[in-house]
Fold each of these.
Amino acid sequence: GSHSLRYYYTAVSDRAFGLPEFSTVGYVDDIQIDRYSSDTGRDEPATQWMKEKEGTEYWESETQVNKGTEATYKHNVKVAMDRFNQSSGTHMVQYMYGCELGDDGNIRGYEQHVYDGREFFALDTEKWVYVPTEREAQLTTQKWNSPEVNAPERKKNYLQNICIEGLKRYLSYGRAELERRVRPHVKISDHQSDTTELRCQAYGFYPREIDVKWVKNGRDDVHSEAAKEILPNPDGSYQLRVTAEVTPNEGDSYACHVEHSSLEEKLIVVWPGPSKDAQNMAIIIAIAVVAVLLIVAAIAGFAIYKKRAGKPDAGYTAAANRDSPPSSIVSA
């Protein structure tokens, strides 16, 4: 499958949320490989294979690079606040970049800058030019795109060469973990109301990338309303639930289609129709409705009888109240 190397930098204006003023994390695919924090002042390995394969010199070098970057990003937070005319409050600058190596050998890179949760500016990796998303980023992108600075060309060299070389090296270190493949377990169920909600849950799979969808009559994709968020499990595997609201007509068939790198071919699980629980519930509801109607009819009949018969004779013994149960009758 394809593999990626990604880095995330975060700088904050103050410690209001308990975050370090500056931090970085690196990932190969979904596995964190290193981390740096202004609290520790050191770049540290996050996996055993990174710790074993890279020596003291590597970690010392990365620490020095990150210390320099820390000073730069503390300054960047202040610059961004000035651009937005902000003098106080908690503000955050984030920087994300990385490269991806596809199955076919194709290389893809990206770089994005974010301020207070919104994209600030980004690198267009087709035209190799920085593009401002916010008006306040125009000064920065003009400077970085200028011939004097020529930042896009330097970043192009990094993403297409240096980043890919690093990715290949780290892949060789952690191949056993990074190329692990675990098949998903798939379970389908339904919930009946005015419409039918179909549920397909895939769980226990690795790696994270997966495609799960409902298909009608073997050819039509069914629109899923539920958020298709892939969630982590404690054992490092992942889970995903996809639901769809449908109104089945006679002859319609529905199936959950699952595609994952651990599977040699697409996994198709066919919905057998409304679950027995739902059918049983419908029967119970129907019986309950009939029972209620019978009780109402009986009460109405008794009321008519009373009206006709007048008061009961002296030999009639009224049933005990619920507060004092009868002595000779066992309550059900």
Amino acid sequence: MRVIVIGAGAVGGVLAALLHRAGHVVAVVARGEHAAAIAADGLHVDGGWGKWRARVSVVGGDAEAADLLVLATKAHDSAAALPEWAGHDGTPVLVLQNGLGGEQAVRDALPNSPVAVGLALFAVSLTGPGRITVTGPNGLTLGGEDDAVAVTEPVLRHALPAELTVTDDIRGAQFTKLLINQVNALPAITGLSVQQTIADDRLRRVLTSGMVETVAVGDAEGVSWGPIGGVNADAVARIRERGRVAADELARRLATGMGDVPNPASMLQSIRRGRVTEVDQINGVIVALGGAHGVPTPVNSALVALVHEVERTGEHLSPADTLARLALALPSTTQD
């Protein structure tokens, strides 16, 4: 199969390398030094899924026809990335992103293309131009339109050395991933790994408060919380019933599942590269939907503002400064 991966960063790059290793013809869209390194010497992958080099080609929107497009840009870059691919309208598309919005961008730009959505649980880091390390060799959840899933599922099952779960309710799974992705903002603000932020009692209070808000917003939206990884509707129900106490248990479990290799999360990786993060598509979505349903989201709102501040300044905040800036947004300890 011929596959084009639009956005060969950490997640898109490792998928491109896996597909190439499985015998598919793979081309990627990348930019800057990363694109130059891939064109010169391929994608170099190491970590949890082994060590190999994938000699993929670098292309643009004038590339020849493909059997599958993978949209793996940041969600906020989707609308800008897709117009040059109008000549590929009708080709199935797999959206592989954090946050919401990517699939709608595909439908707007490529109205005849069936759309599948992949939710990656594996953790990967872009460690240099053309170089990717797999720090968490976990699975992927797949759903979406039947025609796109029918093309994508066998390809992923062949290439992915981890569990592939197919769901009939990808929106429910997306909201569960939004809950998990509450771990993302604090590393971007502080410069610490996910494990370090969860280990800090003060920062974990922020994280768990954001999780409680996310569950309240998803419930108001009428979401049927879908399972993703080890997080399911029962875990959400415990947060709904027990608030931050149950969210604290979930946060600790997520950190344990990440192992000892520091996980910077995607937003911190963007900050380190001087790029805009996807905070608006993760925490910002919770704020927007909360506003629509009358659900207060002060913690998520404050996290969005602080991540954008770090984007602008390039300067991280200490845990103490982070807590001071978030003090008014946090619930009192008597509400735990």
